Write a sequence for this structure.
């Protein structure tokens, strides 16, 4: 079914006459959709900022823990470690 130029013009003129403006409902729906999209975008940004802060806290905690471990190991080295080879040989059981 081919549209002729006259029929197309008639359709355009008919729809133009009946439509006098945008309905309030269309404006409300489009505003609601845009608001929901905006809220999702903002919430994704805030989640990423929270994740960055949390990872920074974990990183600092790891540095503090590593420092504490090095200090504990350094303290043991200064006090002197037992001779592990001697202890191993004493507890080793040799087959007869």
């Amino acid at each position: 079914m081919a549209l002729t130029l006259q029929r197309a013009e008639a359709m355009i003129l008919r729809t133009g006459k009946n439509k006098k403006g945008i309905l309030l409902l269309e404006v409300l729906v489009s505003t609601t959709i845009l608001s929901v999209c905006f809220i999702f975008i903002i919430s994704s940004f805030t989640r990423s900022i929270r994740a960055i802060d949390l990872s920074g806290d974990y990183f600092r905690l790891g540095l503090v823990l590593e420092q504490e471990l090095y200090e504990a190991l350094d303290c043991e080295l200064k006090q002197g470690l037992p001779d592990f080879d001697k202890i191993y040989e004493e507890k080793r059981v040799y087959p007869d």
Q: What stands out?
A: The helical segments are 5-18, 24-79, 84-91. The chain is about 80% helix and 0% strand.
